[in-house]
Write a structure and sequence with these properties.
72 residues, elongated
Length: 72
């Protein structure tokens, strides 16, 4: 009984770690793809020009990606 419980915890922990790594890699490639497709310098727009709309759009993309990966 205790061994099964420990095995389940280890398996769940492994799944969480793998999802976190997959999410980090997916966020990196999503950022690179969006940066490549968009004609603006996104970092300059958000940091220097305080473009709140672009910042909200980027946050929505990452939240959507997190939701999709969380459903796997």
């Amino acid at each position: 009984m205790i061994q099964d419980l420990a095995q389940t915890y280890i398996l769940n922990f492994t799944y969480v770690i793998l999802k976190a790594i997959f999410f980090a890699v997916a966020c990196f490639f999503t950022w690179r793809l969006f940066d490549w497709l968009e004609k603006l310098d996104i970092r300059a727009e958000i940091a220097e020009r305080n473009n709140l709309g672009l910042a909200i759009m980027i946050a929505a993309i990452f939240l959507g990606l997190a939701y999709v990966i969380g459903q796997i």
